[in-house]
């Protein structure tokens, strides 16, 4: 938890705002999406319940009408004269021919009754004692035992009213096949004396009856059940004669209306309505997922709505967080740049809010710092100028005294033209060293300065030689005065003066490329004793020994170069004991004096 808090704490402000927005918006979108889904699901269930009630009501009305029509057919059969005549017990010989005609008429009437209604499958008439059985032509294998499926006792107890016989499998054949049949039965009474003469059974094909409420949806069940829940007929022939308990895990025997219940596996919508006959009821049962199979479109729409809302919220969060934090980010970048030394950096002030006022004060503060830095740099440069001018005005006494002593000695020994040349070189050296107080000289003048100095030194040390080789292209370049002489002096006094023979000082100058830019490079090289790594380290640490002041001249030149030009310009020293010293000095290539003065 603590680690997560630290991660959040270290996040950029923009990401924090976006993260908080997501935390706030996501639950709202999820809650709204779930609420909409539940509302649409509830409405879909309500519509399904109303639709199922309308459907089962329509089926009930249709079946009731059919049953009433068939009952009316059975009523007409009770008073049919042909049926009455055939069933009367008469043995008169002169009536045999009449009875034969009546029997033929009876068969014709039974066949006509079957043809009169498509749902009447077959018709059977049986005498009271069962000795006489008459049936429609589409029946076969009709015997006294095969018609025992009809409950005669119920017909007698009904006293002339119709008795509906629940579904049974016929033991006789109809159209050469056995069928599941429902039947309506009535007793036939002699209209003259009211005595029982026989029974009529009108059979209904269960499959034809199921066509009334057949459904294209194989998952739904439409059925007619009795009061005990036994299924008499259904659109699915596999469930006929089963119990609704076996099918749904409960009995569906009471009440009208619709409900949704769970049978342990799924939710099932059940609508039932009581019919007019024998307490039978029509039942419509379907898994709710079948009714809701189009609900996935609404669900996808709601999910799409939720995702679109979340995406829109995220996009707006990113846009507004960026809009809010942009000034802060700009201020942060400006502060980083100023921290890296880029004091010219300023941030844009776009508003007058807290961030805008902070940015304004930051710009004001940086301007003040920049002014102070300019003031300090100017004062430091002025101080360095004064120090340099003071050092220019100070001539080393020992050099002056030694040179004058040499002139005196030469004058005592002999008069020679070399004396005048030495004196002239000495004058040129001091004139160029002082340079009338000017700090900048061209390379060509620095070359003359070095030639004057080295000529005097070669006169003093006869075994020493020098060579100056400058690229003609750099003769007009401007450099600070007295830049190379201290380096040459170090080479003479610390590397060459004690060398017995072959002492050589080489000064070269040219143009080279450094970090993609052209720079001026001078090299002062001697073949003296060289320096150890320890001595080089002391020079760069500005720790000269009491007897070694060479590092002072080198460090002075390094400071002058760095103060004027900055890094990476300056001195590089390459040396090994016994192999001489090579000092490399790199400064910018400047052909205009005004350009160099601007750096000061």
UniProtKB/TrEMBL annotation:
It holds the Pfam family HAMP. The chain crosses the membrane at residues 17-37, 298-320. It is a multi-pass membrane protein. It is an enzyme of class 2 (transferase). InterPro entries: Bact_2-comp_sensor_kinase (IPR050640), HAMP_dom (IPR003660), HATPase_C_sf (IPR036890), HATPase_dom (IPR003594), Sig_transdc_His_kin_internal (IPR010559). GO terms for molecular function: protein histidine kinase activity. It comes from the Bacteria. Residues 322-374 form the HAMP domain. Its EC number is 2.7.13.3. It is found in: Cell membrane. Keywords: Cell membrane, Kinase, Membrane, Phosphoprotein, Transferase, Transmembrane, Transmembrane helix. The keyword GTP-binding does not apply. Its main location: membrane. This is Two-component system sensor histidine kinase YesM. It comes from Paenibacillus aceris.
């Amino acid at each position: 938890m603590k680690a997560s808090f630290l991660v959040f704490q270290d996040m950029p402000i923009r990401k924090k705002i976006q993260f908080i927005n997501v935390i706030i918006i996501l639950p709202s979108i999820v809650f709204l999406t779930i609420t909409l889904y539940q509302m649409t699901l509830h409405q879909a269930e309500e519509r399904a319940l109303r639709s199922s009630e309308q459907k089962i009501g329509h089926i009930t009305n249709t079946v009731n009408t059919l049953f009433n029509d068939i009952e009316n057919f059975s009523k007409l059969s009770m008073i049919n004269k042909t049926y009455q005549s055939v069933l009367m017990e008469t043995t008169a010989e002169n009536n045999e021919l009449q009875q034969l005609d009546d029997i033929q008429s009876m068969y014709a009437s039974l066949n006509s009754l079957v043809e009169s209604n498509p749902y009447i499958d077959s018709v059977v008439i049986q005498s009271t004692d069962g000795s006489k059985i008459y049936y429609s032509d589409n029946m076969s294998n009709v015997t006294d035992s095969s018609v025992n499926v009809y409950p005669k006792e119920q017909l007698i107890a009904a006293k002339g009213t119709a008795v509906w016989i629940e579904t049974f499998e016929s033991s006789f054949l109809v159209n050469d096949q056995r069928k599941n049949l429902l039947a309506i039965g009535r007793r036939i009474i002699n209209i003259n004396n009211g005595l029982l003469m026989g029974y009529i059974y009108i059979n209904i094909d269960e499959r034809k009856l199921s066509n009334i409420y057949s459904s294209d949806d194989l998952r739904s069940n439409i059925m007619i059940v009795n009061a005990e829940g036994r299924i008499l007929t259904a659109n699915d022939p596999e469930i006929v004669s089963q119990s609704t308990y076996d099918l749904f895990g409960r009995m569906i025997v009471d009440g009208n209306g619709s409900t949704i219940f769970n049978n342990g596996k799924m939710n099932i919508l059940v609508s039932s309505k009581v019919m007019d006959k024998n307490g039978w009821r029509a039942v419509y049962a379907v898994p709710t997922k079948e009714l809701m199979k189009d609900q996935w479109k609404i669900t996808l729409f709601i999910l799409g709505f939720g995702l679109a809302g979340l995406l829109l919220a995220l996009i707006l969060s990113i846009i507004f967080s960026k809009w809010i934090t942009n000034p802060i980010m700009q201020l942060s970048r400006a502060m980083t740049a100023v921290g890296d030394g880029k004091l010219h950096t300023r941030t844009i002030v776009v508003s007058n809010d807290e961030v805008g006022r902070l940015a304004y004060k930051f710009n004001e503060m940086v301007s003040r710092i920049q002014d102070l830095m300019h003031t300090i740099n100017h004062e430091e440069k002025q101080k360095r100028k004064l120090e340099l001018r003071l050092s220019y005005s100070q001539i080393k006494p020992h050099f002056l005294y030694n040179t004058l002593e040499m002139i005196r000695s030469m004058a005592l020994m002999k008069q020679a033209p070399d004396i005048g040349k030495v004196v002239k070189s000495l004058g040129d050296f001091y004139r160029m060293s002082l340079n009338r107080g000017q700090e900048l000289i061209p390379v060509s003048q620095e070359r003359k300065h070095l030639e004057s100095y080295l000529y005097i030194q070669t006169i003093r040390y006869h075994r020493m030689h020098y060579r100056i080789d400058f690229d003609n292209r750099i003769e007009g370049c401007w450099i600070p005065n007295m830049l190379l002489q201290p380096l040459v002096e170090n080479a003479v006094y610390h590397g060459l003066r004690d060398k017995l023979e072959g002492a050589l000082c080489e000064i070269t100058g040219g143009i080279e490329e450094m970090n993609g830019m052209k720079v001026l490079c001078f090299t002062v090289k001697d073949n003296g004793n060289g320096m150890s790594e320890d001595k080089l380290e002391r020079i760069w640490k500005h720790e000269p020994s009491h007897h070694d002041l060479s590092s002072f001249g080198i460090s002075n030149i390094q400071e002058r170069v760095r103060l004027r030009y900055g890094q990476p310009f300056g001195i590089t020293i390459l040396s090994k004991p016994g192999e001489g010293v090579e000092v490399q000095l790199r400064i910018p290539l400047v052909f205009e004096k005004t350009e160099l003065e601007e750096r000061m």
